[in-house]
Each structure stands twice: as C-alpha cells, then as structure tokens.
Design a protein that fits this description.
This protein is of the alpha/beta class. 56% of the residues lie in helices and 13% in strands. The chain contains eleven helices and eight strands. The structure holds 1,4-dihydronicotinamide adenine dinucleotide (NAI) and (2S)-3,4-dihydro-2H-pyrrole-2-carboxylic acid. 1,4-dihydronicotinamide adenine dinucleotide binds next to α1 and α4.
C-alpha cells in the first residue's frame, strides 16, 4: 500500500489527513506524521491511529509520498534536511504557498519528482479546491498517484506556476474571506433579532446554495444577480447600498493585498 507522510502537522496537514480518512483513501496506519513538537503530533497520531515517527528523515524513509506541510519560513531548511533520505522512487508533494518547483529542485536535486500544490482548507470535508503543477520528473503512474490524493478531496486544476499567487488568493485564502462574509450576514441577522446560531445556519446555507447555483447554471454571476433583484424590490436596494459602501472595491483590494504578500513571501 502507498504510504503518505506529512512533515508538519498543523492546520492544513490536519485538514488533508481528515479528508483522506473520511474518504477512506488511506488506512490510518499508512499515514505517517512528524513535526517539530512531539507534544502536538503524538497525541493526534495516537487518537487517529496514524504512524508517528521521531524525525523528518525517518518520515521520508517510511513514505512513498512526502507532503511538505510546514510554514514557508522553514521550508528550505526542512528540504535541505531531508535531501539525503529522498530517492527518485518517492514523490515530494509541497503545499507551501509561494515555494516554486525550481526552488525546491535546487534544494533536493533535479532528479526528484515533485508536485507543487495549493489546496484549500475545505479538503477536510471533500469539498476542496486544489491547484497542481508537476515538474518534468513526475510522470505517468507516479503523477496520477500524487494528483489523486487531491482529486479525492474535491476539485483540482492544473495551473502554470505563475498563476499560483492569484489562485492562492481566490481559493486558498478565500475560505477566510467567505467566512467573513457569512459572519457579516449572520451579524446583520442578529441585529434584527435572530439568534447567532440560526442566523449563521441561514447565511451559510444561502452561501452554499448560491455557489452551487453558479457552478451548475450556465449563467454568469451577474445574470444570477438580476434573477434575484426584482424590479422595484428590496434586493436591488440592498445591492446599491452595498456598492455605495464599496463592496466590490473592498474585495478586489483584499485580493490585491493577498497576492502582494504571497509574492513577498516567495
Ligand atoms: N492554512 C491554509 O488554509 C493553507 C495553508 N497552506 C500552506 O500550508 C503550510 C502549513 O500551513 P498551516 O498548516 O496553516 O500552518 P501551521 O503553523 O498550522 O502548521 C505548520 C506545521 O509545521 C511544523 N513545523 C515547523 N517547523 C518544522 C520543522 N522544522 N520540521 C517539521 N515540522 C515543522 C509545525 O510544528 C506545525 O505542525 C504553509 O506553508 C501554508 O502556506 C496552503 C494552502 C492553504
Ligand atoms: O495564509 C496563508 O499564508 C495560507 C496560504 C493560503 C491560505 N493560507
């Protein structure tokens, strides 16, 4: 059986592991974990029945797929550390925002098959959106095996690396922005007397249904807006007030700041 190892067991690694376990894509024991704080990963591994190892090198030795899930500031150090344990039979999968295939190859060698990915947190419930880019060493069955890790966790799209920055903003960071929007809707509901719990359920379901409608419909979002905004009705009044407060500009400015920081971190 293919074994998948995670270097770094923070929020994102746990979202991926949770999604893989829910999809029954890997047996718990075939998921190997290590991070620099035993107190964090050992109880987690024990609770889920994962295999915990005590060093990054041991993790690489025990894994066919090695997922780099550390923060960007330590990624280069970790790749240099694991280089001696990597072989061309193993696939290195990075989820680190801003870390290019070329930079990884300089640290672990040109022969290493590598898949650069950018998943989002919704992989945890099988509703993720993940960008993938493979280097020239990753081909055939090995590439399929690596990409399938993310196919079982939701949708995937192959992207040129120069588009990872905008993808990271639109899909990687946006769950936080969409949660912000849902919370704003829900807070408005509380203002009008709904309980926070009920208002959040209503706002979240309306957001979910609207996203599904955009994906299923052949209409663009602007046409769907017109379908909701009845002539002389309440929705158009709300839309105009939101736009007067600068909703679209606020969203685009937020994405600009996200993309800029992603470039700075690269
Ligand atoms: N949070 C998200 O929604 C997304 C995060 N990412 C990327 O995922 C990566 C991890 O992000 P988070 O999980 O949010 O961060 P996090 O801070 O929750 O997790 C980082 C993990 O790395 C471990 N670590 C640090 N130094 C280490 C070392 N030398 N050896 C082994 N493990 C070490 C930490 O103990 C921790 O478990 C980042 O590179 C980020 O860019 C990518 C897409 C989405
Ligand atoms: O905030 C971050 O840096 C990462 C990248 C995409 C989502 N979270």
């Amino acid at each position: 059986m293919t074994k998948i190892g995670f270097i770094g067991v923070g929020g994102m690694a746990q979202a991926i592991i949770g999604g893989l376990l829910k999809a029954r894509a890997f047996a718990p024991a075939d998921i190997v974990v290590h991070s620099h704080q035993a107190a964090h990963y050992q109880p987690y591994a024990q609770r889920l029945g994962l295999t915990a190892v005590t060093s990054n090198a041991d993790l690489v030795a025990a894994s066919d797929l090695v997922v780099l899930a550390v923060t960007p500031n330590v990624a280069a150090t970790v790749l240099t550390e694991i280089k001696p344990a990597l072989t061309p039979q193993k696939t290195l999968i990075s989820i680190v925002a801003g870390l290019t295939l070329a930079k990884m190859a300089t640290l672990v060698g040109d022969q290493q098959p590598i898949l650069r990915t950018l998943p989002n947190v919704n992989v945890e419930i099988g509703a993720g959106m993940t960008a993938v880019a493979a280097n020239t060493e990753l081909t055939g069955a090995a590439r399929t095996t690596a990409e399938d890790v993310f196919n079982v966790l939701g949708s995937t799209t192959t992207l040129n690396e120069d588009q990872f920055g905008i993808f990271s903003a639109l899909a990687g960071s946006s769950p936080a922005y969409i949660d912000f929007f849902i919370d704003s809707l829900s807070r408005a509901g509380v203002k009008y007397g709904l309980s926070k719990q009920q208002a959040t359920q209503i706002a979240a379901q309306a957001t979910l249904g609207s996203a599904q409608m955009v994906l299923k419909s052949d209409k663009i979002p602007f046409a769907l807006i017109d379908q909701v905004a009845s002539p002389g009705g309440s929705t158009v009044a709300g839309l105009l007030a939101m736009e007067e407060a600068g909703l679209m500009t606020a969203v685009v400015k937020g994405i600009d700041a996200t993309v800029q920081r992603d470039h700075e971190n690269a």
